[in-house]
Amino acid sequence: DGDRLYLPDPVYQGGTVDQSRGSAWLAERIAQATYLPERSAIGDAIVSEAGPGDRIVIMGARDAPLSAFTAGLLARPWACPLFSPPAAGCSLVSAPGRGGALMECSL
Predict the structure, then answer these.
(1) Taking the CB of the first residue and of the last residue of the chain, which one, N or C, has fewer CB atoms within 10 A?
(2) Is 0.85 topped by the overall pTM?
(3) Higher-confidence position of 63 and 30
């Protein structure tokens, strides 16, 4: 089906960042993007849509709970049995304390 990009609401860490343009605004401008405000809805979409040959990359910055979210995805039942834990083709690489995570599944 092609690439997909799921965008949740941004994590604002304070400061003077302009919050007038968020993920919904960005998703309207990217053909493959879908705005899902809640991270849990993104997890649901990933586990139900991933299939053989897919590569799943989860990225974030200054978002400490992201590593736990990514690890939680690996513990969930997936629609595609190739991804169901323990999936030999899935690995989790995270940067503890930095708020980033990378889950790579390539089967």
Answers:
(1) N
(2) no
(3) 30
Q: Give, as one character, the DSSP assignment of residue 14.
A: S
DSSP secondary structure letters along 30-76 = -TTEEE-SSHHHHHHHHHHH--TT-------SS-TTHHHHHHHHHHS
Residue whose C-alpha is closest to residue 86's, from 94, 74, 97: 74
| 42 neighbors 15 (Cβ within 8 angstroms) | no
Token code pair at residue 5: 């990009």
Dist CA 102 CA 91 (whole Å): 8
Asked whether residue 71 carries a pLDDT value surpassing 60, the answer given is: yes
- Among 6, 87, 103, smallest CA distance to 45 is for 6
Confidence of residue 13 (pLDDT cuts 50, 70, 90): low
Nearest to 21 by CA among 37, 13, 31, 9: 9
